[in-house]
Structures are given as structure tokens and as C-alpha cells.
Amino acid sequence: MARRSPAVRLDSLLRTACDVIVDRGLANTRTSDVAAAAGVSQALVFYHFATKERLLAQAFSYAAEQDLARLDAVVSSSANPLDKVRKILKLYAPTGSSKSWAMWIDCWSESMRVPELEKVSRRLDLRWKDALTEVIAAGSRDGTFACADPAGAAWRITALIDGLAVQVTVHERVIARKQLNEWVRQHTARELGVEVDQLS
């Protein structure tokens, strides 16, 4: 049997760690849990990550980077600013089982106690806000949007989605996802000076 490269093993460990974290939560995930789920020794986990905190931070970063790669593709595409905003809202809002959102909520909570997680979550969160700011600013320059404060609009839009996403992820069936998406479209339309149906 051919030996897998360290990079492949690392990728596999990170994917496994994400699954364990979604199942157990960041606070309750132990390196031994990840090792057992991956079918490797705990020593190998520590070889790659050195500490539990680094494992958790890198696993969260790995999961978030999957969504950020899709975000980067939208921002760098040739689509017009309105199409880009529609696509970003779809990427950012919770869908399906919201595993990604469950990890974000868990990470925000643990970040108050784990500096390494706080640093990673802040960096990744700002990338979403910066990307949306960039798109809104481009749309404001070309006349697609009537928005004097692209950065403020990006922060207010993502803050609304963050708050609603916590509700639909933590409190199942309190708010329908359809209602969440409609509120987000209404708020975004007001921020950008466009009609709501343009964001449908």
C-alpha cells in the first residue's frame, strides 16, 4: 500500500476534525476524539497541530475557507455588482442543516475564551465584510447602487444575517428560512437603494 503524503493526511485530519466538532462542539472535542474518528494515533494529531487549541482553530479555518473560496470566485467574476450581491447573500445566509453556521456560532462562543480561535474567526469574518464592501463600492461607483457608505452597509447587512442565522440555527422553527431571506432582501435593498425584487 502506498503511503499517503503528510499534506493528504493533514487534509483528511482537518475534514475529520470538522465532522467531530459539528457532532460534539468545540468545547467538548478532544484530540483523542479526532484521532479515533480518523483512525490514527493521538501522537499524529499532535505532530500536525501541537495543541488542541491549534487543532480547533485550524479545523475551523479549514471549514470556513471552503465557503470563502466560493466567495472569492463570486467577487472576482465578471458578473455585475447586483448579481454579485445576490450570490453573496445566498452564500452567507444559512441553508439546509447549517453545519457551517453551527461551527461559526460555536467558534464565536469559544473565541471569548480561546485567543487562537478569536484571531482566526476575526480574520475570516472580516474577509466576508471586506468582500461585500468591495462589491457594494463598485456598484455605487457605476450607479447600480445608491449607497454612500459601502463599509457600513456591508457590516449592517452581515450583522442582520448573523443575528437571524443564530436564531434559525439554535432555535429550530422559530423563524422560517423563507422569512429570513425576505427580511435580508428587504434590508439589503434599503441599504443599496434598489428594489427588493432586484435581489430575488
Question: Can you offer a commentary on this structure?
Answer:
The chain is built from 9 helices and no strands. With about 200 residues, the protein is an all-alpha fold. Helix 6 (about 100-110) packs across helix 7 and helix 7 crosses helix 8 (about 150-170). The longest helix has 27 residues, at about 115-140. The N and C termini lie far apart (about 50 Å).
Tell me briefly what this model is:
With 200 residues, the chain is mainly alpha-helical. It has nine helices and no strands.
Which terms would index this structure?
200 residues, mainly alpha, 74% helix
Annotate the secondary structure layout.
Blueprint lengths: L5 H19 L6 H8 L3 H8 L2 H25 L4 H12 L6 H13 L3 H27 L8 H21 L6 H16 L8
Helix pairs in contact: 1-2, 1-4, 2-3, 3-4, 4-5, 4-7, 5-7, 6-7, 7-8, 8-9
Mean pLDDT level: 90
Helix proportion of residues, in percent?
A: over 70%
User: Which value, in Å, is the CA radius of gyration?
Assistant: 19 Å
Give unreliable regions as ranges: none
SS-based structural class?
Answer: mainly alpha
- The protein's oligomeric status is single chain
Distance separating the two termini: 52 Å
SSE pattern, N- to C-terminal? HHHHHHHHH
Overall 3D geometry? Answer: elongated
